[in-house]
Amino acid sequence: MEEKDKTRICVIGAGIVGGAISEALVPRYPVTATRRSFDKLNGLSEKGVRVTSDNRAAAEDADLVILSVKPAQVVPVLKEIAETVSGKTVVSFAAAISTDILRLAAPKAHFVRAMTNIAVRIHKGFTLFYPEPDFPAERLSLLERILMELGEIQQVDEQYLDVLTAMSGSGPAYIFTVIESMIYGALREGLPRNLALMAAAHTAIGASCLLLETGKHPAELRDMVLTPGGVTIDGIYELEESRIRTAFMKAISAASARARALSAEARAQAMQEIE
Length: 275
Ligand SMILES: NC(=O)c1ccc[n+]([C@@H]2O[C@H](COP(=O)([O-])OP(=O)(O)OC[C@H]3O[C@@H](n4cnc5c(N)ncnc54)[C@H](OP(=O)(O)O)[C@@H]3O)[C@@H](O)[C@H]2O)c1
Description:
It is a single chain. This protein is an alpha/beta fold and 275 residues long. The chain has two domains: 9-164, Rossmann fold (3-Layer(aba) Sandwich), CATH 3.40.50.720; 171-242, Orthogonal Bundle (ProC C-terminal domain-like fold), CATH 1.10.3730. The chain is built from twelve helices and eight strands. It has helices spanning 16-25, 42-46, 55-61, 71-81, 99-105, 140-148, 161-169, 171-188, 193-214, 218-225, 232-241, 244-274, and strands at residues 9-12, 31-34, 50-52, 64-67, 89-92, 110-115, 125-131, 151-155. It has an eight-stranded mixed sheet with strand order 3-2-1-4-5-6-7-8, sandwiched between helices. Helix 4 (71-81) links the parallel strand 4 (64-67) and strand 5. The longest helix has 31 residues, at 244-274. The chain is elongated and about 70 Å long. The model has no long low-confidence stretch (mean pLDDT 95). The chain binds NADP nicotinamide-adenine-dinucleotide phosphate (NAP). NADP nicotinamide-adenine-dinucleotide phosphate is lined by residues 12-18, 34-37, 40, 55, 68-71, 73, 77, 93-95, 115-118, 169.
């Protein structure tokens, strides 16, 4: 078995995302995960994650802390562990909480704000991260190595993270909706359920890989599938009549607006809690 890296990681808030991150990191790093309901940590314990409900002790023992509690819990948790994370890297996966708020709650930590999605569970997430301006440069490569265990990564400006919450964080829900709709279409035509699911899911994987590997625009690749007078153009005609592109554009705009509104609410609440 490959020897583990020595960097000790603590994941505070081992729910859907924190649990998936813990599972993804534990083959390579010593991971401690926390949440208040200790009995719900059994599954992670069986996978080799150390578990506790003591945030402060877990943060004290860690070299790097990952925060994956809900936005409303970020400031109280940071205030609880502020002294123990002094000088340490803290990566917050919470939507809506900006790095200036994180810093006010725990002034001596070095913060990274990140956004990812539930595919981290199988190392296929897309993690966008923003290290605050005075983040120690010599820590970047370790940070990137750790995040790469979760899937693809990209460093971005903080100003994009609300829209990226709507794209990358919420994105799997949209893709599942597309796949589910394709399955229902196939069921109407009498395809067995499992065959319909495999066809829809593998088609989504293949199309995404082709897009990324060729670097072509999606419209150019779609055009390659459209034989004159063929089958696909009839399907595309129906989609255009249903204004599918407008529907998706409106979905991303609505989710982005909600992410921005949550950021503003979270800021107001956090300021009250910090004062
Ligand atoms: N779900 C997604 O697809 C997704 C995608 C991208 C980003 N995010 C972000 O990831 C964060 C977590 O989301 P989630 O969907 O994983 O939520 P979740 O399943 O509710 O997980 C949050 C966890 O935090 C724990 N918790 C709450 N207060 C705590 C405390 N004081 N100390 C320790 N643990 C505490 C909760 O467990 P107990 O109640 O047992 O303490 C819960 O397990 C959010 O900030 C969200 O914005 C989520």
